[in-house]
Amino acid sequence: MSSPRTPVPHTAWTALRRDGVAIILAHPATGLPAVLHWGADLGPLAAGDLDALDLATSRQTTPGTLDAAWRLPVVPEEANGWSGRPGLLATRDGRPLYPRWSSQVEHEDSGSVRVTATDADAGLTLRIRVELGAGGLALLQHELINDGAGEVEVAWLEATLPVPKTADHLTAFSGRWTREKSPLTTAMPRGTTTRESRRGRGGHDAPWVTIASVGSPHNRRGEAWAVHLGWSADVRHRTDRVTEHVTLLGVGELLRRGEMRLAPGESYRTPTAYFAWSAAGLDGIADRFHTWTRARPQHPRTPRPLVLNTWEAVYFQHDPARLEQLAHRAAAVGVERFVLDDGWFLGRRDDTAGLGDWLVDPTVWPQGLEPLADLVHSLGMQFGLWFEPEMVNLDSELARAHPDWLLANPASVPSPTGLSFRTQYVLDLARPEAWEHVRAHMSALIGGLGIDFIKWDHNRDLVEAVHDGVPGTHAQTLATYRLIERLRTDHPGLEIESCSSGGARADLGILARTDRVWASDSNDPVERQDIQRWTELLLPPELVGAHVGPSPAHSSGRATTLSYRMATALQGSAGFEWDIVGCTDEEVDAITAFADLYKELRGLLHTGTVVHPDVRDPALRVRGVVAPDRGEALFTVCTVSSFEEALVERLRLDGLDPERRYSVRLRDEIGAAQWGWATPAWVGKTPVVVPGRVLTEVGLQLPALWPAQALVLHLTAV
Predict the structure, then answer these.
(1) Phi/psi of residue 50, nearest 5 degrees
(2) How far apart are CA 579 and CA 313, in angstroms?
(3) Which part of the chain is the Glycosyl hydrolase family 36 N-terminal domain (predicted)?
């Protein structure tokens, strides 16, 4: 039998506490700090309490195993007796590096700590920053510096935090075009597992978020731990459930061989990893992300304008007179931002030519875009324009003049094996002259037309992204970030939407520089129920574009009622993707009412707490937004199929104040839902007043809604 192991003495402790969350770090005399606890706030702990926590959670050495420290440091390595995936893998001149760190701790403020670790023999410095931000969201970032002679190649440097053994289920995300962010929950896999994205952007099947939970996750209850990487390119999500240690949950940038080589004095800084713990299920995870996101200085503070984007209205068929007519109709129904989509620039009559030539096509727009921009502004709307700055067609003046500006394997241009997409390629923005070409053309248009908004698209993966003979995805991503930042600096007030053939680039890295994302190229409201629900697991609704499209939907062929499409769009940053000039008088009245309703409610919808009551019937999709003071709430009750039973379950409305009474009103200005013959007694023209405790604990009896129908319930405290 082995003897109890003496805990490693610690010279210092760090306890970060905020908004119900705590991270407790132990700083040993040698080596890197270890995370003793990440989870519920334990309250104020004295030094003796922290010593007791260390003793209470330490373990003895198992016979037949290494005698190394069992407390895993924030960057675990083989030298720690760790059999899982190392947190750092690097070589110098082709030889492996096994650092022995000596670290110093600097407490920046009550919410963050910075660790500087060095190994003079290895010629390395590692800087680690741990922050507990608004909402209790944990942020981790590493920086590795080459202090020695010779080149250091970084294979990976990843952020991890421990989760307890009780976390026995794992939820990961995948998807496809027009069906982004589709979750799958499984039992926690044993050993080390990784999930990678190699698309040069997140991709429609991006990992997005990885969630560990106690049992299958629920919306409103149960412990869960989540991680997301704020990086707009290749990522790797990881879990390590090895037999001797706590489970690790982590994430990092996926670097290709030879992509990150550090000459003496150079450094590699990782993207920020975001970790969220919740004792209140998935809505608790979302609340931490939403609170942190809304606390950012750059977060949009003005009311989110009602948008009309012209893509599904005209596609490539640009005609100035028709678009001016569309602008007049948009202003008349209450649109506040008019966005001209793809097709306005040189040679762009379809998707095979023109990308890279950011000049207005005089054959289509003989007077330029100034008359349209002036008209839009005179009608009281903002003017927006579509760009795809990172892309180029071979059939373009730019590609003919500078074929060497492509981010590609030269052997694949033109593509003999289908490595282009829509016949487009990637422009190497890490090349300064290419970056400046795009910046200058975009800036001239933004300033000349008074552009208020850019729809920034990115419609293809990066395949064999070669820059100066080495992988170039990392450099391309940073160059894109710099371009966005420069344009916003040069044009104060400019807003930008991140679109990537829908929701293929919606991470917190791109959203540090943009103002919203286009959640999906699908405007099918049935598909949108789940796309928007899982997008807002991270992003608050004011950042998620949600538009009313025509019926049938162009992406699925499904026909739905206008009221259902509008109720679905009400759940985000709303707008239209539709030729509303062709609407009937009844449709014009409905979308005008929708515009009024959106403007009335967006102050609530874009500041409140998002809740998803747990329901049993798979036909139901229920979502609510509750005001910060719980004085008001709006719930949308939607169906995606028919109910299993004739008597539908009662709907419990979570998040309300149990001590207040609420007036419950159906907002059917945008059209009434349809259901079977039985109508619950509370449904009527006169609002019913119900105690909050009753609404939460007992609920409302739902009618047997038909498939693809929606109720909009407005609650106000009385």
Answers:
(1) -70, -35
(2) 4
(3) 31-262
pLDDT higher than threshold 90 for residue 66: no
Let me know if 215 is exposed, middle or buried by CB neighbors in 10 A (0-12, 13-18, 19+).
middle
Complete DSSP assignment for 171-211: EEEEEETTEEEEEEEEEPPSEEEEEEE-SSS--TT----EE
183 has a pLDDT exceeding 60:
yes
With beta carbons less than 8 A apart as the criterion, state whether 199 and 245 touch.
Answer: no
In a 3-state reduction of DSSP, which class is residue 29?
coil
What distance in Å separates the CA atoms of residue 589 and residue 282, rounded to the nearest whole number?
A: 38
Phi, psi dihedrals of residue 487, rounded to the nearest 5°? -65, -40
> Given the structure tokens 């560990």, which residue do they identify?
212
Q: How many angstroms separate the CA atoms of 205 and 196, rounded?
A: 10
| pLDDT tens digits for range 513-528 | 999 999 999 999 999 9
Q: Which two tokens mark 499?
A: 């679109």
pLDDT of residue 8: 45
Q: What gap in Å lies between CA 304 and CA 324, rounded to an integer? A: 23
Alpha carbon distances (Å) from 581 to 78, 330, 578, 584: 66, 8, 9, 9
C-alpha to C-alpha distances, 579 to 376, 452, 682, nearest whole angstrom: 16, 22, 38
35/188 Cα distance (integer angstroms): 21
Dig out the tokens for 58 from the structure.
């330490």
Burial class (CB in 10 A: 0-12, 13-18, 19+), 284: buried
Query: Which pLDDT does position 57 carry in this prediction?
Result: 87
**Catalytic site residue from 205, 342, 452, 457:** 457
Mean pLDDT (whole number) for 161-184: 97
Which helix (DSSP H) or strand (DSSP E) does residue 618 occupy?
none
- Our answer to whether residue 521 is catalytic in this structure is yes
- Tokens 């103002």 found at: 515
| Residue (of 57, 105, 97, 60) closest to 79 by Cα position | 97
DSSP label at residue 404: G
Contacts of 314 by beta carbon, 8 Å cutoff, 6+ apart = 322, 323, 326, 341, 343, 579
Strand order in the sheet with 661-666: 609-611, 620-626, 632-639, 710-717, 661-666, 688-691
* 686 vs 684: CA distance, rounded Å: 5
Catalytic option among 521, 524, 530, 654: 521
